[in-house]
Amino acid sequence: MYVLPPPGGPVCLVGNFLFVYLLDNKDMTCHVPQAISEAYSLKSLQTKLLMSLFMLFLQFVAHPNCQQQLLTMWYENLSGLRQQSIAVKFLAVFGVSIGLPFLAIAYWIAPCSKLGRTLRSPFMKFVAHAVSFTIFLGLLVVNASDRFEGVKNLPNETITDHPKQIFRVKTTQFSWTELLIMKWVLGMIWSECKEIWEEGPREYVVHLWNLLDFGMLSIFVASFTARFMAFLKASEAQQYVDQYVQDDDLNNVTLPPEVAYFTYARNKWLPSDPQIISEGLYAIAVVLSFSRIAYILPANESFGPLQISLGRTVKDIFKFMVIFIMVFLAFMIGMFNLYSYYLGAKYNPAFTTVEESFKTLFWSIFGLSEVISVVLKYDHKFIENIGYVLYGVYNVTMVVVLLNMLIAMINNSYQEIEEDADVEWKFARAKLWLSYFDEGRTLPAPFNLVPSPKSFYYLILRIKMCLIKLCKSKAKNCENDLEMGMLNSKKRKVRFHSSIQNTESFSGKNAYTKPTRYQKIMKRLIKRYVLKAQVDRENDEVNEGKWNFVIDPPNEHVLLLLLSGQYKGELKEIKQDISSLRYELLEEKSQATGELAKLIQQLSDKFGKTLNKDI
Residue 389 pLDDT > 90, yes or no? Predict the structure, then answer.
């Protein structure tokens, strides 16, 4: 018999139970690699839905047999590397790191060769992309290395190569490391554009790592754009000096204000200067770039659980921020309203403006604000006492209550991960592997900017197909306009719709009469599961705490429909039917219990009367 879980997610729990059962059964294990391989080889929407369904089940994905098949697919075309030691794998990764440019050139020339097939394997794609991103991070470090020991000139100094050079021309020029960083950014932008084209915008924004990439690349583009605009303005000022200034020393010449501004030292720049904005955005982009390392951590057994715990922690922090912002805004506005009339009448400017209120309350969380912030120079004790009370309540609420609540939430999330760390890590690693199983995006940035001969070949084929379709559609329209009139066109519409219906019915009939190899395998697995469940029906026991009710074995087509993911509406209907059936059975059970109690009472009464008569 089939034992179903509570209605709070029956499809997922039943599917997880069924899939793990299939993997645990020795007779069915031999078919699991074929089923997973067939699912990944297909490109239909049904298969994508099925694989999405698979990814909902942690126990199924983390099962040893499933992980074994995923490992086989991960080391595709590299079967010998799988059994090697960590040292050999490290040497292979090091070789790819050194020879990545040469491997990219070889792939451009012969993408269908043995080397090209090796580079298209998921493991090699992962290594190539990881190495490319590591080089990108190294360029970010090298770009800042010239300032590790301090800057060459102070903010109030201007240093130029020759007397007639504009100071800003020297500071806005792009270095060789910055040019390489721009190439990497362009390559990553192109890769993201291809991913959006293949998956669609809706699927793209679902993944948080894609949003991080989009934000990081957008900030890089904004930073380089602002830097380039500053360079253009400085170049225009330099052209003016070269054309109209005859003196070799600019200090002896009176320049127009818009030109003289570019000769000033940094301490005289405007706050809205494009170069200042560029430097601020660049710093944010660097931080986001290094945080991107967390994406590849699930590939490692040691760092994977830590990364999962970090992800859960970030979710807890976002939940905590809702309450934190509400409390913070309440006290910030209240303290500002209390002390905004005393600007200049306090020992420090705390709470006299909105900005100062924000700074004082924020840093008081870390113990960096003083109690003197609420003291007035005047003898207004009532205002001071209210300030003391509000400031004290704020510190107790934020530091003692909310921060400890956040620590407890983070600790709870970490304990949940630790209790089932192996399953959680294998599930996260499987999701990382799945992102490299698809075809395409073999070369990482910036090598993907150069189109390969294969790209030109596919482009020519697409143009050819578009031209053929265009010519056929034009020829068909011309023939229809010449041969048919309006009356015949109506008849043609009727025949067209009927032919569509016949085609759909015929295709639907073929879908059942001629199932694919994948459908045959899944149907065979489900049949075995149904037969096994029918044999063990009498031996199963119903545990009220674990399962709510028992139903007869469903039809195998229902299970096939549930697993294939063909219709989302059918899943919702099945869930509703199961929920309604549960309540109906419970109601019938309660009614039967009441009737049974009445019968027992009647029997006991009759038995008592009979005994009294006999006595």
Answer: yes
pTM value is 0.70
User: Domain check: are 181 and 73 in the same one?
Assistant: no
Asked if 559 and 584 sit in the same domain, the reply is no
The amino acid at residue 184 is: W
SS (H, E, C) 553-614: CCCHHHHHHHHHCCCHHHHHHHHHHHHHHHHHHHHHHHHHHHHHHHHHHHHHHHHHHHHHHH
Per-residue pLDDT of 152-196, as tens digits, reads 667 767 777 777 788 888 888 899 999 999 999 999 999 999 889
How many Å is the Cα radius of gyration of the chain?
Answer: 35
Boundaries of domain holding 229? 151-298
DSSP 114-130: HHHHHHTSHHHHHHHHH
- The encoded tokens of residue 23 equal 């993997």
User: 446: cis peptide before it, omega within 30°?
Assistant: yes
* 491 domain-assigned: no
164, with CB counted inside 10 A (0-12, 13-18, 19+), is: middle
Evaluate whether 410 touches 313 at the Cβ level (below 8 Å): yes
Among 534, 524, 535, 536, residue whose Cα is nearest residue 560:
524
Q: Are residues 167 and 251 in the same domain?
A: yes
What DSSP element (H or E) covers 334?
A: helix 304-339
Residue of 37, 19, 16 lying closest to 28 (CA atoms): 19
CA distance to 48, 505, 512, per residue, from 508 (Å): 20, 5, 7
- Which residues 6+ apart lie within 8 Å of 168 measured at CB? 230, 233, 234, 237, 262, 263, 275
Nearest to 421 by CA among 295, 294, 308: 308
Does some domain include residue 552? yes
Given phi > 0 = left and psi -120 to 50 = alpha, else beta, which region is 375?
beta
User: Which one-letter DSSP state was computed for residue 293?
Assistant: G
Looking at per-residue pLDDT, the higher value among 413 and 381 belongs to 381
The SS3 of residue 152 is: coil
Split into its structural domains, the chain has a count of: 4
The verdict on residue 175 lying in a domain is yes
Is 108 in the same domain as 231?
no
CA distance linking residue 254 with residue 231, whole number of Å? 22
